[in-house]
Amino acid sequence: MSAIREAKHAVRVHRVYQAQSRRREVAWEAKQILSTATEEVDAASVAIRQMRDALAAEEQIVREAIGEAAAPSLAAIFQPVTSQYMLR
């Protein structure tokens, strides 16, 4: 091989190596971005589940409070009716 051919071949090999190196670098960056995004989605999913559970607990507390508040009112409404039927 002549020196010119060797130089041209070396340039081609170098360009291929640079392209492969850049592709590896881009792939590594994409992998890092994807990994970070996956971690963030997982964390958001956990937070959503926790908020959903907390909301369900709060809803139950409110329902029980409404039920307790309504119970005396309902008892007062239905007690006279029940008493009237029991007396007859």
Automatic annotation (TrEMBL):
**Tree of life domain:** Eukaryota
User: What is this protein called in UniProt?
Assistant: Uncharacterized protein
